[in-house]
Write a structure and sequence with these properties.
The complex is a heterodimer of chains A (about 290) and B (about 110). By secondary structure, chain A is mainly α. Chain A contains ten helices and no strands. Chain A is elongated. Chain B has about 110 residues and is mainly alpha-helical. Chain B has a two-stranded antiparallel sheet with strand order 1-2. Classes of the chains: A mainly alpha (about 290), B mainly alpha (about 110).
């Protein structure tokens, strides 16, 4: 052991720093034991990096042998991520159009609705986006545990980019003077209002989910009520646009039915049922214990 | 039935007795098998053996030799000793009469 030559003190220092960073992905006791083993056996930095990487990979793979991270990945990052991405995209486009027209011409963009209706719609959409993002983030963190860095990353990129990529691929958006760095930044960073609302809310939710795992029953009920109210409100308010367009086109335009408009909001709201179920279960357990 | 690596760990930990912990078990296995033993394989197998109830592990006291870090101490349980004995008996039984076993006996001084 310890037979491999180290190239230089600087390389060795960088190598041990890398070992230190990688070992942070292990739990505290294991990290201490492994670093102690390295120190005791006088292991070379090259072998230490190989060994710690091997252990980290095995531990990360081990996290995926249970169903919870898979549910987080498929159910939240992919299933709820798609409608959430479209909702965020819609908020960005409509808010951006309104602000651009107001600042350029000083008037309200003609959407066939009153300015008050448009403001109410955008405000409700923004609040609902915050609530959905936090809830999805919390359940993602709760289900994923130490695997949250992967499930959250998939969720983040799915919400940030799915709708934009879909529009680009369908030809509805044409990228002009596309510079790779700008496209990469737009795809990776939350550089718009909806992206910021989503990112901070989902990150906070995931952080809380990893730490607390379940919500108190009362908090879960309040959150569920708020999400239900906003789901109903948004389904109803999105009908304003459909009705206005039908009137404007003298019946030629056939808008989406309420059921079609409700579906994405329901899909993105499913994590709240998980929160309610786990909060209730915890309460039942503690009730049984006391009786 | 134990796996080969599980058996190696149980044997090494039993031989080391009170002094059985991660680095010592690893060194014991490397010296006896003359093969590298990765920390990843060692620690994940220790977890598996503990889940099966064949060993018990706990964090020992920190030592200066280890940069003030604790050891993961290992003790083989009664079930572990039974499982390792069964594995050894099975390997001995199944090897009876095969060429390498016969040759080994013939070569014995």
């Amino acid at each position: 052991m310890g037979s491999e030559p180290d190239r230089s003190p600087t390389m060795t220092r960088i190598g041990w720093r890398l070992v230190d960073i990688l070992s942070r992905m292990l739990d505290t006791d294991e990290r201490q034991a492994v670093r102690g083993d390295f120190a005791e056996s006088g292991q070379s930095v090259a072998r230490a990096i190989r060994d710690i990487s091997d252990l980290v990979v095995r531990r990360q793979i081990g996290l995926w042998t249970v169903w919870q991270p898979w549910l987080a990945l498929v159910g939240i990052a992919c299933l709820a991520g798609v409608p959430l991405s479209r909702i965020a995209f819609r908020l960005n486009v409509e808010l951006g159009q309104q602000l651009a027209v107001y600042y350029t011409y000083g008037v309200h963009l003609g959407t066939l609705l009153t300015p008050q209706q448009d403001i109410a719609w955008l405000l409700c959409l923004a609040i609902a986006l915050l609530l959905w993002s936090w809830t999805c983030g919390f359940v993602l963190g709760s289900l994923s545990g130490p695997a949250v860095w992967l499930t959250w990353s998939v969720f983040y990129f799915m919400v940030l980019d799915f709708a934009s990529v879909r529009f680009v691929l369908s030809g509805n958006i044409i990228l002009r003077d596309s510079q790779p760095v700008r496209i990469l930044m737009a795809a990776a960073l939350p550089l718009n209002p909806a992206g910021l609302l989503f990112s901070f809310s989902a990150l906070w939710g995931a952080f809380m989910g990893v730490r607390r795992r379940v919500l108190p029953s009362r908090t879960a009920c309040i959150l569920a009520s708020a999400i239900t109210i906003f789901t109903i409100l948004l389904t109803w308010m999105s009908g304003w646009y459909e009705t206005a367009h039908e009137l404007w086109s003298s019946g030629a335009w056939h808008g989406d039915s309420w059921a079609t408009r409700l579906l994405p909001f329901v899909v993105v709201s499913w994590p709240i049922t998980y929160l309610l179920a786990t909060a209730n279960r915890k309460q039942t357990h503690s009730h049984k214990e006391t009786t | 039935m134990l796996g080969e690596f599980e058996y190696l760990i149980l044997s090494a930990a039993t031989r080391l007795g009170e002094g059985a912990y991660g680095a010592a078990i690893r060194q014991e296995i490397e010296e006896t098998t003359r093969q590298r033993c990765s920390i990843g394989a060692l620690y994940t197998t220790l977890d598996r053996l503990e889940r099966k109830g064949l060993i018990k592990t706990w964090m020992g006291d920190p030592t200066p030799q280890r940069g003030g870090r604790p050891k993961r101490m290992v003790r083989v349980t009664a079930n572990g000793i039974r499982a390792a004995s069964n594995f050894y008996l099975t390997v001995t039984r199944v090897s009876r009469g095969v060429s390498w076993e016969v040759n080994r006996i013939a070569l014995r001084p």
